[in-house]
Amino acid sequence: MSTLLEVNNLKTYFFRKKQPIPAVDGVDFHINKGETVALVGESGSGKSITSLSIMGLVQGSGGKIMDGSIKLEGRDLASFTENEYCKIRGNDVSMIFQEPMTSLNPVLTIGEQITEVLEYHKKMNKKEASKKAVELLELVGFSRAEQVMKEYPHRLSGGQRQRIGIARALTLNPELIIADEPVSALDVSIQAQVINLMEELQEEFNLTYLFISHDLSVVRHISDRVGVMYLGKMMELTEKHELYGNPLHPYTQALLSSVPVTRKKDAVKRERIILKGELPSPANPPKGCVFHTRCPMAKPICKEQIPAFEEAAPGHYVACHLYA
Ligand code: SF4
Fold first, then answer.
1. What's the CA-to-centroid distance between 307 and ligand 1, angstroms?
2. Residue 317 has what pLDDT?
3. Per DSSP, what are the bridge partners of residue 294?
């Protein structure tokens, strides 16, 4: 499989009263074509800021990429101007948001919101754009697509709106789709429908997903590889069966111990690890390993030295002094 996206040493900071606050601090990972890589972690871990950095959307909210590269098929997005980003957003990389109601325009019909993209980017006339929009709505499972074209977002259910969000993300045939908590605002039964739809579309169009979530059960289902983030850093990254079966980093072990199990024998094997203390402030991260203030296995060196993010086993990367 060839590499589609390569993120190296990404550092994205926000500025509060001119003080730099690291939201993403030296993150490395890559995504192969046709693969799904998931990023998991608590709120404030930097997973969403990583995705917004790739989309070139941090600048508008007071953020700045301070260092590193984001190579999409060799082009370094981190050095792109806003004009250059406008050409690749939607065309090469697009996004599915957590709550589609906030990304859909409430005063435009669904049809207008899809056709305007096609008319602007693909230079289609109104008739061609409408035909293509109906096809897209059918693709994401609407049997009455022509009727849905005339609806306003508030007239649709959460699951229907998220299917519109997926149709919009597919409008310009991007290779990479970033899905930021795409099902966390939906009922559990609807979550399964949306996840199944994403998988079917991936198979049909060989799509590549970066899937952001805090739901470890959903991530286990949809991903090929999983990266675990904490306080702006990548703690562990490996293939999903390896991560769920053999988690190396103490933070990953604690996260996985909180996932409910359905089989009695798993419950017997599983020891719940409860982390003490709060997530430290990114404005004042701990020295050394950023996890040492909550780590049940911390050693004296952990307070002094930042652990390197290294390959502990083939394809299994971890940032922890226990494996140095
Ligand atoms: Fe825990 Fe030390 Fe490993 Fe950090 S480096 S996760 S503090 S053992």
1. 8
2. 98
3. none
Q: What is the average pLDDT value for the chain, to the nearest integer?
A: 93
| Residues of the chain scoring pLDDT < 50 | none
Model confidence pLDDT, tens digit, residues 101-133:
888 999 999 999 999 999 999 999 999 999 999
Residues 166 and 198 sit within 8 Å (Cβ to Cβ):
yes
Give the model's pLDDT for residue 94: 96
Measured between alpha carbons, how far is residue 157 from residues 99, 162, 263, 317 in Å?
Answer: 12, 9, 34, 41
pLDDT at 263: 65
CA distance 270 to 263: 11
- Give the model's pLDDT for residue 265: 62
Give phi and psi for 195, each to the nearest 5.
-65, -45
> Which ligand 1 atom is at minimum distance from the Cα of 302?
2
Q: What are phi and psi of 256, to 5 degrees?
A: -70, -30
Give the per-residue pLDDT at 304: 97
Q: Reduced to 3 states, what is the DSSP secondary structure of residue 159?
A: helix
The predicted pLDDT at position 218 comes to 93
The pair of structure tokens assigned to 25 is 């601090």
Q: What separation in Å is there between the alpha carbon of 47 and the centre of ligand 1?
A: 20
Q: Which atom of ligand 1 is nearest to the CA of 299?
A: 2
Residue 266: per-residue pLDDT:
61
Nearest 10 degrees: Cα torsion 76, 82, 88, 90: 140
Give nearest CA residue, ligand 1 atom 1.
298
Which residue among 248, 252, 276, 299 has the greatest number of ligand 1 atoms within 8 angstroms of its CB, and so is best to mutate? 299
Q: Is the CB of 233 under 6 A from ligand 1?
A: no
Give nearest CA residue, ligand 1 atom 5. Answer: 320
Strand order of the β-sheet with 176-180 is 93-96, 176-180, 208-212, 36-40, 225-230, 233-239, 316-319, 309-313
